[in-house]
Amino acid sequence: MADFTGESPLASRAGLLAGTSVPGALDIGEIPFLTQIALRVEPEGAAAARVGDALGSPLPGPGASAVAGDLLVLWMGPDEWLVVGEQGRAPDVEEALHKALDGDHGA
């Protein structure tokens, strides 16, 4: 799959964002074109355990996040997570999640 080479949504605001940074304390800027996959699965079910195994970390609980290799998994709600990774990772991550669901209810 070829990488997208267009301009990011905040490219025109890069200078403004950098200007609001605090040197040595806080850098504000865009990380463009990240892979973002919404995941819904019953948190106490067998599919959730298989998804955790496939990602390399159990799905995090309320208000938490987990680092799973080069992915970040963010809790979004009682049965919802956001899986974030570098640009171009979506096909591999989606395939692993579909295999982990193994026909169980999930999206």
Account of the protein in words:
The chain is of the alpha+beta class and 107 residues long. It has 3 helices and 4 strands, in the order H-E-H-E-E-E-H. The chain has a 4-stranded antiparallel beta sheet, with helices on one face. Helix 2 packs antiparallel against helix 3 (90-101). The radius of gyration is 16 Å and the shape is elongated. The mean pLDDT is 92.
Shape: elongated
Q: Could you tell me the strand content as a percent range? A: 15-25%
Numbering strands along the chain, what is their spatial order in the largest sheet?
A: 1-4-3-2
The total of helices stands at 3
Radius of gyration: 16 Å
Helix percent reads 25-40%
Q: In this structure, how is the largest beta sheet organized?
A: 4 strands, antiparallel
Mean pLDDT: 92
How many beta strands in the DSSP annotation? 4
Structural class: alpha+beta
State the end-to-end distance: 23 Å
- Write the element-wise H/E pattern from the N-terminal end onward: HEHEEEH
**Contiguous uncertain segments of 5+ residues:** none
Supply database-style keywords:
four-stranded antiparallel β-sheet; elongated; single chain; 26% helix; 4 strands; 3 helices; 107 residues
What is the strand and helix layout of this fold?
Elements: H1 14-19, E1 35-40, H2 46-55, E2 65-68, E3 71-77, E4 80-85, H3 90-101
Antiparallel strand pairs: 1-4, 2-3, 3-4
Helix pairs in contact: 2-3
